[in-house]
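U., I forgot to send this yesterday:
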Amino acid sequence: MCGIAGVVDPRRESPRDQLEAIAAAMASRLAHRGPDDEGVWADAALGAALGFRRLAIVDLSAEGHQPMHSPDGRYTIAFNGEIYNFRDLRTSLDGLGHRFRGHCDTEVLLAAITEWGLGPAVQRCTGMFAFALVDHRSGSVSLCRDRLGEKPLYYGWAGRHVVFASELKALRAHPAFDAEIDRGALASYLRYSFVPAPYSIHRHVRKLPAGSILTLGPGVATLPEPTPYWDLFDVARRGMADRFGGTEPEAADELEARLRDAVGPRMHADVPLGAFLSGGIDSSLVVALMQSQSTRAVRTFTVAMGDGGLDEAGHARAVARHLGTDHTEVRIEPADALDLIPTLAARYDEPFADPSQLPTSLICGVARRHVTVCLSGDGGDEVFGGYNRYFLGRMAWHWRGRIPPAARSWLARAMTAVSPVRWDGLWARPQALLPSRFQVRQPGDKLHKLAAVLRASDSSGLHMALLTQWDDPASMVLGGSEPPTVADDHRRLLVADDLTERMMLLDTAMGLPDDMLVKVDRASMSVGLEARVPLIDHQLVEFAWRLPPALKVGPEQGKHLLRRVLHRYVPPNLVERPKLGFDPPIGSWLRGPLREWAEPLLSEERLRDDGLLAPGRVRDAWAEHLSGRRNRDYDLWAVLVFQAWLADNRTSTQRPATAR
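Result:
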């Protein structure tokens, strides 16, 4: 796992020492991603330079140094990630006459590209990666990203140069970088709490989409469109056309075998390895499969939230005890969050407001004291249908259809006439009488979400209502309008006839790479920890799309088949409980220990001076939250994270719009 950066001069006018200095400066901003080694390469005749920072995981010797050159001199590469099947690829390439100096996957990838070409070589790779490849023969530079988007890669113009890097902070090291804020991307951020690809918070920078290759030829004047080599929508279409035809027990057997195949190779490392364990379905399954394939106790790590209603540490402890892992638990309190919050802007490098970034960052720091690689259970919700909104949304849509339109409108108004906090109080006693699987956190907020569902005109509007943080986010951004995203591409989303699968498809295409995997990548790499995510192995994802919907999302809960496999390793009573998530109590913290930090960031004077957000709507939400009339924690967290990020990146030079 590493950090990469580079610069391309399409006109080939820049001297070598200038290109090298820029690439070195960019790579130096990524030292946290690769504390073990650094390298830079430049060629004025090709108008290209690559910078590299290394976190040594496999083959710790100098043979893993990058940028790396192919033996025939045709290719130079800067590679970030891991190719889990590189040993199998190496065996095939050995048989074709290739010889290797060391034992790292990057050298094998170069040989594969030499033998088969870039596209076919990448098709043979199983792993997580983002890399830049210079072809000395054609004079081109290609950027490539893994299928599901585990590893990040940004690119764009900086003056007359094209620049690219693992994180935005590296691009800002270019002397001609333009940090103008993309107001449309800002509006999308306020809707989703993250900036969706292909956009970035900067107007002249884009994210390379997952599963795609971008090739810059000599003399390029405009950036070409990336070319996909793996397409999730095509995977879904083909999977649904070829459903798994066996029985449920046979499906569980097949899934278990594929899960073991995904987990096993991700346990290979030449450094200490462990796993995150929350005690939930996904992380417990990953740890169980690790322990079943290990001759020693697996190192596991969990966070205790310091809030009795949210603390899952006891459940994680019970699972760890049952599986026999070497378990470490760390407790976080509001003071820990206060210490961490000032670092979030630099850590995440782009406005990112998933509150679980706080415990994720803290647990990564703890794990890094003991191991260099950690396996994570992320992705199980998107791939196997674990979010509450899947079955609750389907249920709500079913009953919505039975309510006359006029009654829907009246019911929605009635539900929102009572504040979420008041609903929580009214629902507390009857909820305590319900079975645990029907109990939910913050029922008032969910009822207000349900009101938005009742107002939705179609199923696409239903999912958008469930995903949206700020209503009408474009009106929040002065001079901004939302750009199109994959969520607006109804033609592609309708490849899934089933409403639940359509929601899962969008979450896997957008929420997974732009939210969940960003959270894990930045939190882990900020401390030099490699996180591996076996539940989104692309072959596992392809199999999941063959499973009938009922094997993923049942009438009352999700991840039906995944649970069945887990119960072969862990008793149901240790893992079956209402889904809590991994979010700290931001709402109460903002009214208490975080209020002093939040107040100046939300001041009307500051908002007007920045000229980006509508002060009136922000101030109204803040007053509403402080009064307890409504819980606006996620809305305000998104604004606060952006304001803190903006303060940390004051080099942006946008012309203020008129405040509203």
